[in-house]
Design goal:
globular; 5 helices
């Protein structure tokens, strides 16, 4: 399985980079992980950032039937870890080989990104810094693969 994460902004602090790197390393046994960091708008213009996201989605396979796009969105569907693992497993069974996740910048993204997503998902009603959200997302993807492999993982 290929896992692509498109994010607005970079991980600046070493602790975020280290945490993300650890989960990327762990996920390596389950598939290929790629992270694309897009530039943040200097003017907090979400349409500019959204345009960059849409362009990147077009480049990495929006039209491919083997791709599924999850947009992280506070208004999206919430999953338990087990249900998220089941969703990923079912996508794989149905022939999806590319999972694409979108994390907007600190100002989010506009409806053009939502329109391209196959599904919008939410991890909480809370708002998280986008750097932390990347680590949380990577951990939950890793947890999903561990669950699907029937391997033990801390609860």
């Amino acid at each position: 399985m290929n896992i692509s994460i498109i994010c607005v902004g970079k991980l600046k602090e070493a602790f975020w980079k280290d945490a993300a790197g650890e989960y990327i390393k762990r996920l390596g046994r389950f598939g290929k992980v790629s992270i694309t960091e897009l530039a943040e708008s200097k003017t907090d213009d979400i349409s500019e950032e959204s345009s960059r996201i849409c362009q990147k989605l077009a480049e990495i396979g929006r039209g491919s039937s083997a791709s599924f796009i999850f947009a992280l969105d506070i208004g999206g569907k919430s999953y338990s870890s087990e249900a998220f693992a089941e969703k990923i497993n079912n996508l794989g069974i149905s022939g999806i080989s590319n999972l694409i996740f979108v994390i907007g910048g600190s100002n989010g993204y506009d409806d053009s990104v939502r329109a391209l997503a196959n599904e919008r998902i939410s991890f909480s009603d809370f708002t998280f810094p986008h750097q932390l959200m990347r680590v949380i997302l990577l951990e939950q993807i890793y947890r999903s693969f561990k669950i699907n492999a029937n391997e033990k993982y801390h609860k």
